[in-house]
Structures
1.
Amino acid sequence: MKNRIILALLGVSLMASNCLAAMSASIVWEWRDSATANMVNGGGFKTGASGTDYSLQNAAQWTASDGTSTASTTFISLTSTFTSAIVGNVLHITAGTGATVGWYEVTGYTDANTITLDRVSGTYTAATFYVGGALNVGGSLEDSFFEQLIAGQIVYFKTGSFTTSQAINTAVDGTYALLIKLEGYQTTRGDNPTGANRPDLILGANGLTLDDYWVLKNLDITGTSSTVVRQDVNGIVHNCKITNTSGTANRVAHAHGGNFWYSKSEFSSTSGYGIDTAASSTIMVYGCYIHDSTVGVRYGNDNAFFALNIFDTCTTGLSSSGVSPRAVIINNTFYSSTVTGTKAISLTSATSGVLSLQLFNNIITGFGTGYDGPSQGTNYNSDYNNWSGNTNDIDGTDMVKGSNETALDPGFTDAANADFRVGANMKATAFPGTFPGAGASCIGYLDQGAVQRVEPAGGTTNDVFGIM
Amino acid sequence: MKTIIFLLLLVLPCFAGEISYPTAENPLGEKVIFDDKYSQKDFTGKALLDATDLEGKVIYGSCFSQEEPNTRVFSETIKKITFINCNLMNVRLNKPGWITIGCQETKFKAHADGKDWIVDDNLMPMRKLNEE
């Protein structure tokens, strides 16, 4: 009797653990624009699993409409001929009375008709299912797909064109240790394509809204919604191009909720903000091209770091909405071909005396006003910037320039065509040149502005880095 | 005859793509042949009123979304055209020979709050477009 009770308890315990099981964080997903349409395929494979990755093909390896299960993790299809290579692939149940539709990890192989899933999928006898095959847009399951992702998973997009069929808005979070990554590639995963070789996500009026700890990498995303892409806190955008082409005022290409890193990416919003965060947050923007927007970047109250960015043809290059913004703005190029009504940096939202600003090594050229902020008394340091072609470098007495500021022609190679390589006037004129306490020969040569001269010639382009 | 086949072989592969398209009747998917020039492209905000090569075309996976409801994008001289999985939001689609399969055809309009709202046929706002 005792044994029976123990066995019964064990059974209940096992059933409970089965019910609670979930897909692995090691599952890697694949999107291809040549795959079966409407998000029906399995589309994923668990890294390191014993089976064969069938997500790297257009069509499902197995598909049928006789999926059967009885409130357990056992899944049966009498018309299929499964092999042990199925283990680690994802099975997608798309329909079936009594079935819980969704994506399931195949965790075990029993025989040609029987496999084990990561969790119970319902009680049914005629479920339509797909195993393997990459995912492709269309239908009504795009949002569902994003909703079921798990911290640590990676979604790869092979170069191609993906016109989404619905708004995507997920509350799924990654974690500090397990980010959720959406990453584009051209031929081989990890090849970090640039320019037109990145996959295109064409959203139209649909937004892409992600939660915490998401990474966007190597993607070209366009849309017209009030915010094309919004990520909440602790996210990363790297080597992406995000564009809002709407003619409606105040639209945003990319927005975030706080603590965000942007690098090597391109942003524009025809009638609004390239990057926007009204929230108090830390924002770091490095090596980006921000252009053709009403406002290039608007940030909130907290710490902002801008280095080696190009702000090209924005009515206002950089602004803040906060009363106590703090910013380090180093080695950026602010360029405008129109002086009327344009500003490179506008921090007028700041309350006098609260703003903290470090402004070094920037080129600010062609604006109506180079810098507009609260009146004097503000905590700022400005030096080694080059101010030229502006109607007013500084609005009124908002700031006093440092003793090493210049007013030279930066000698851009072809600013009208976004070539901001600098001429000899900007050569090795930036701070610092020497490092106190370091060896006497430890002398740095830094040009003003974002684009550094290559001398004598050559070097590598270092388009993307692979740590993320 | 030989010449015709040869010409077809020359022309067809250059301008056609294909995709497996699952339906309720055939969940395993049917092969759809689509026009390469206009498929899987971004035509957001653009008008193709002057395009003369759209008659009879099957267009798959392109975005023609417009910002104003009932915007004319395609010439009404086109008698037959098929859109599959295209974003046709705010596009005027009023010809009987214009077939849509799996397309987005919602109308929306930007309102005073700066957001896009789905609107009814009288352009009255019903609900926000990008909120669940």
2.
Amino acid sequence: MIATLGRYDWDPVVTFSSGESDVIQRLSQYCRHLQWPTMTFTVPVGAAPALAEGPQARSGFQNFWRRFRRDYVGIICLGFLALLVVAATIGAPLVAALTGHGDTQQFANGISTSGFPIPPWSHALTATDAQDPNGPFFVLGTDRLGRDVLVRLLYGARISLLVALTATAGALMIGVPLGLCAGYFGGKLDMVIGRAIETAMAFPSMLFAIGLAAVIGPGLLNVIFVIALFSWYYPARMVRSAVLALKSQPFIEAAVSVGSGHRKIMVRHLLPQLTAPLIVYATGIIAANVLFEAGLSFLGLGVPLPTPSWGQMLSDGVADGLYRIAPWAAVVPGIALVLTTLALNQLGDSLRDALAPRGRG
Amino acid sequence: MLSPHAVGADVRRFIGRRLFTAAIQVLIVTMIAYLLFFVISTLTGANPAQRVAGRAATAEQVARVAHQLGLDRPWYSQYWHFLAGVVRGDFGYSFQQRLPVSEILFPAASVTASLVVGAAILWLIIAIPVGLVGALRPRSVWDRLSAVAVQVAISAPVFWVAPMLAYLLAYQPSQGKLFGFSIPPVTIFPIQGYTPPTQSISGWATSLMLPWLALAVGFAAFYARFVRAFTLEQLHEEYVLVARAKGASTSRILRSHVAPIIAPAIITLLGLDVGAMLGGALFVEVTFGLPGLGYTAFSAIQNLDYPLTIGVITFAALMAVLANTIADVAQAALDPRVRIAGGSGNRAGGRPR
């Protein structure tokens, strides 16, 4: 009977004779007292009843969750992102209904007589530029066309999340099979795909992306296509090198020896090994793609006007130096972008720590 | 162990193979850039010949212009013509500005070069000390603070950092405010615009100060993270342990053992990041109104000036491929441990954009 205690492989391995089940019970209590997260017991079948109330084997997800939930920074990031999704899906129409402001609605009394936007937390203006307590109230102020910044921010979150998530999914759908095939089959195929990845990484991707975006024109699907086209090579490269390392492992040899086909080995044996690093990687790519979309929108090559998106709100606030008289027009979408990207990046780091506690995911 | 002679031969073979790869990359990059142009002229119905000839031109005039531009030939023939031009330094003729693209390209490239090189120096000055402190005192207060700063700086897009810097460090001081404090109104940095160094060196430096800073922030964070991780890894190597056992001080270990390994790595990283730098420079140039490559490409796209767009993109891609190649070759020459068999792709930084 062997009991492995503690978090890591190098933590103590204790061997007991089968008559010592009471010792194990006391040990398990002690472990719970110490709050050691993992404890596995290899127990002969005959001794199982003695452990009926003892620790049970945990699934990979349970192990991950026990580690992740102690990482309060990761939990905060996850909470923020969950809040953002709720704000984008339910919050946007809700706030629009509560305030009665549409995302593209322009308020004539939402800009001063000299054409300046209204600062945050103030009412619309009267003809003499005084605040009108009966007029509409703008929590985050207005932009240069007298539109409600808060409502646009919430609707803009939809575009940011939608584009970043679908483009990342697209990038994974291109990159993972390519990397898998390149790493698994090797040889000429690997050379071609490897060279393609290197060449794609050498591209000044932003310049090519704006060229392509300009050629195929603005539009939701076009933006997603452009972003996916310029981010597939990150997962491809990671999967390729991971598969190269996994290929010579005994479990692949075993799968080959029992006659598994290439497809079965790749999908059933290699791919599950890659889930953890892929989740971590995808989180980072989503963060990068949020900024990518914002960058394209900033240059006027994103989702067409007047649909609000963060990058386009930012460019609107920066154009002609509007941010000098109305800083909130640039600060609000900018902070939304930074917080979202920050939460995603940090979540990626926390996930990596929780999924692969010995570093190197 | 390989004999020194064998290593030299390996490095030479590696360099030869790397140059071959670079040539293929140049072909692919220029072809894709040109195909973009070709796709525009045929699929989307925007006829470049019509744009050159003008709105009032007759069909016959348009056809003549198309013939002059070679647009009536098949795409591979056009591409070959374009490639032959690029080799001679001829990138075509701008519709909008009525100038050869190369005459617009090279002044713009010098602006971008001064932006990128200055910013690179700045971010290395920031990143190396920050990364070293983190590596020498991991989990210390400074390390944790710098880790937070790095994470925030990586997440802040350059097109937000740039206007914020312009607001806080250029506009507000000119209005007598600095971070909320009242100061006498000063104008140190212009909010926008570029002063050529031929006009005034100090004016050039002050006009580029904020752009340098804006571009450097994000990269400094990546490089600080890289320097920290790399140094930390090296400090756990056995050769460092041996040096410590012999009584070498930490600064001596850093200077004579770690530095010779990390310097080529940073040079390689810089070479690999040229593409990302050009992308970042685009936003800085657009925000600060600097007439560099990115700004030129952006306004060319807005004006539907296809030859100029393709010219800038091709030129930028060539620069990136060239820098990648130089970086790999330099790494092979400087660091004998470089993996000859693996070729390039030993990028250790995060995701560039």
